[in-house]
Design brief:
Strand order of the largest sheet: 3-4-7-6-8-12
Structural class: alpha+beta
Helix content: 10-25%
Keywords: Hydrolase, Metal-binding, Oxidoreductase, Transferase, Zinc
Strand content: 15-25%
InterPro entries: Cu_polyphenol_OxRdtase, Cu_polyphenol_OxRdtase_sf, Cytotoxic_necrot_fac-like_cat
Organism: Pantoea eucrina
GO molecular function, one term: oxidoreductase activity
Number of strands: 13
Pfam family, one: Cu-oxidase_4
Radius of gyration: 17 Å
Amino acid sequence: MSEWITPDWPAPQRVRACSTTRQGGHSLAPWDSLNPAAHVGDTPAHVMRNRQHIAETLALSAMPQWLDQVHGNAVVRLPAACALPQADAAITREPGVVCAIMTADCLPVVFCSKDGIEVAAAHAGWRGLCNGVLEQTLARFHCPASEVYAWLGPAIGPGAFEVGAEVRQAFMAHDARAEAAFRPAGAKYFADIWLLAEQRLLSAGVISVSGSRRCTFTEEQDFFSFRRDGVTGRMATLIWLQ
């Protein structure tokens, strides 16, 4: 068990990124223990201690810039004009500015340009993914998608992510190849959110897509999972430029 997951991807040295696990924090059950989310019912003082622990352990020069995530496809450029912008992705070219998203089954995706000038992070639940949050994030880069690296973080795996037929149809309406990411489960389907994201990224022009394929639902000791537990904490996925 570890507090951190570091992407295995070909990012330039000045690009720093990680995903937290649920280990090493101060929150009590059911948010135990490294929960940085202030919107899930946890004790505010514990959340602040967890956020401070993340910033200190990673030697961040500034606190992460959190988002008001709404399962949409809006992208904000950081530093932002307001303290808690409503968006599901963030991008920056400013050293020391930390793009941050929170997940507990949804897919976190981090991006960097091959030249190490620009980084971004996106929160890709199935709604945001289907509605183009990854494509919208790529569109904000100053370079073409073919010059962007992407890394897919821990999310609910294809053996646990049960969805209705309407979700499958929504993805297939965009691209019929999405059918490969769905496996029948009675009247519903199991969905592979990593494959769906990879399909979208490759179709948008990204050449290099890496990922951990670690399942938040089944790896209970390391990850929060909303589908598994309901009331629970969140993991943070962060990316910044040194």
